[in-house]
Design brief:
There is one protein chain. This protein has strands at residues 17-20, 34-38, 42-48, 57-62, 65-73, 95-103, 114-118, 121-127. It is mainly beta. It has a domain at 18-74 and 94-132: Sandwich (Immunoglobulin-like). The strands form two sheets. A four-stranded antiparallel beta sheet has the order 1-6-5-4, with no helix packed on it. Strands 2-3-8-7 form a four-stranded antiparallel beta sheet, with no helix packed on it. A hairpin with a 2-residue loop joins strand 4 and strand 5. The chain is elongated and about 90 Å long. The two termini are 32 Å apart. The relative contact order is 0.25.
Amino acid sequence: MNALSIFNPTFASDFFDAVDRGYGYGSAGSTPLVDVRETDEAYVLDMDLPGYSENDVALSLKDRVLTISSVAQAEKEEKAKDEKKAEYLIRERGESRFVRRFSLPKDIDSEKVEANFKNGVLTVTIPRQPESQPRQILIKSA
């Protein structure tokens, strides 16, 4: 089977199924871009989150559903009394939010999931259970 065919909607309920794209973020109403790759040991999810920090993002895992969400609010502007108060004419960057949910496969080790945030990219590593990892089988001569 082609490795990409597992993302085909006919197989979606069994594998990384984006079950909810939630709210958009930014003025364009788009959702964060995600790449998912598979290794023998783990599934790795990379999500582009420019302008976010690790404090702006929440991750949870329940019943094999990984939820990644955020609500980032614009910084409050506090000006000294002697400064002139600026008034916005257009403000499109006030608040951004999103929710993404992924149904994970049955072979994950949910206790060992890790997440890292670097240069605007969230990387979630979801280890596979050892018994589900490929192994070589020794062929004996008769």
